[in-house]
Design goal:
Layout lengths: L2 H4 L3 H24 L2 H4 L2 H22 L5
Helix pairs in contact: 2-4
Length: 68
């Protein structure tokens, strides 16, 4: 059985995971710089970070990778 057949969703999940991790890095950057106040309220920022943690965990599970 080829790897493509054995893991049909792994490569897609890894791409989505990389995208979600870039989004999380961006949010952390604007959090540290204080620019988040120009774009988000306290609650919105917390909600987005919480949602990204959940999404990254789910995608890592699908992709079969461990989060750092």
């Amino acid at each position: 059985m080829s790897e493509r057949e054995a893991d049909p969703y792994g490569s897609i999940a890894r791409k989505w995971l990389a995208l979600a991790e870039r989004r999380r890095a961006h949010l952390m950057d604007i959090l540290q710089s204080g620019r988040w106040q120009n774009y988000l309220s306290d609650g919105e920022l917390e909600d987005q970070l919480y949602e990204l943690d959940l999404i990254c965990g789910q995608l890592a599970e699908i992709a079969g990778t461990a989060l750092a």
